[in-house]
TrEMBL record:
SUPFAM superfamilies: S-adenosyl-L-methionine-dependent methyltransferases. S-adenosyl-L-methionine binds at T65, D86. This is Demethylmenaquinone methyltransferase. Keywords: Menaquinone biosynthesis, Methyltransferase, S-adenosyl-L-methionine, Transferase. Pfam families: Ubie_methyltran (PF01209).
């Protein structure tokens, strides 16, 4: 099975939709297994860096099974709101089940949470509709990163944040090589053995190979019109947080 080639953005979108549609029931399990739980630490750090305050309205783009959206919702209090958008109906249905289970169990006061099918490249929201926008482990998968960043900037209010948590390219020699073997060979093999999902989990290292490095992503944040951009490498650069802010408008 070779690496996929896409002649058009629509082909990539269809491929990505099929991949996530197929692994949706396995997604959370493999996230924890294959990252040895590290993704939870990264998410916690990401949430701290967002400096969320009760009552905010936040967009979680490419929300998937909703883990980031729900973690944000726990921090916004009953007056807050989170809207999760994703192009995979299968991933969204798992996210909705989680909300239903949380509400039934009466645990964790949640902000309002809504999940909607939609594309990162064409956000169905007016300008300045949110206090902030997040995207977790998904910029690799979109068809046009600069355009998606501009869309995220457009839908947050002046002063609001745009933030990404994404896999990146490890910088520590030695660690990089060992990690490369694990990520490219062992990880798809495990997914194949357990769930028969080789191709879908081979897309994970393949999509990272095609993805830009953390400094280039910083530049794209700036070129999208975001300011005070911060880059925080995680676990020797295995992942990175990028946060920027929509400039305040003159006279405010
Ligand atoms: C690796 S998952 C990340 C899910 C979630 N954000 C998380 O933190 O676990 C990537 C998600 O991005 C979604 N996605 C990929 N391309 C997209 C696009 N162009 N528009 C909207 N969602 C997209 C996929 O359907 C998938 O649910």
């Amino acid at each position: 099975m070779g690496a996929p080639t896409f002649r058009t953005p629509e082909e990539k979108k269809a491929y990505v939709r099929r991949v996530f549609g197929s692994i949706a029931p396995w997604y959370d399990f493999f996230n924890t297994l294959l990252s040895f739980g590290t993704h939870k630490l990264w998410r916690r750090r990401f949430l701290r860096e967002l400096r969320l305050t009760p009552g905010m309205r936040v967009l979680d783009l490419a929300t998937g099974t909703g883990d980031l959206a729900l973690a944000v919702a726990r921090r916004l209090g009953p007056e807050g709101e989170v809207v999760g958008v994703d192009l995979s109906p299968e991933m969204l249905s798992i996210a909705r089940e989680k909300v239903a289970r949380l509400r039934e169990s009466g645990r964790a006061p949640l902000a309002r949470v809504e999940f909607r099918e939609g594309e990162a490249e064409r956000l169905p929201f007016p300008d300045a509709a949110f206090d902030g926008a997040t995207i977790g482990f998904a910029l690799r998968n979109v068809t046009d990163v600069p355009h998606v960043l501009r869309e995220m900037r457009r839908v947050v209010r002046p002063g609001g944040f745009v933030a990404s948590l994404e896999l990146s390219h490890p910088y520590l020699w030695g660690f990089r090589q060992v990690y490369g073997v694990y990520f490219e060979r062992v990880l798809p093999w495990i997914a194949d053995r357990i769930a028969g999902r080789y191709e879908e989990y081979a897309w994970l290292p393949e999509s990272l190979k095609r993805f830009i490095d953390a400094e280039t992503l910083r530049r794209l944040f700036e070129e999208a019109g975001l300011e005070r951009v911060r880059v925080i490498p995680l676990t020797f650069g295995v992942a990175a947080i990028h946060i920027g802010y929509r400039p305040e408008e003159p006279g405010e």
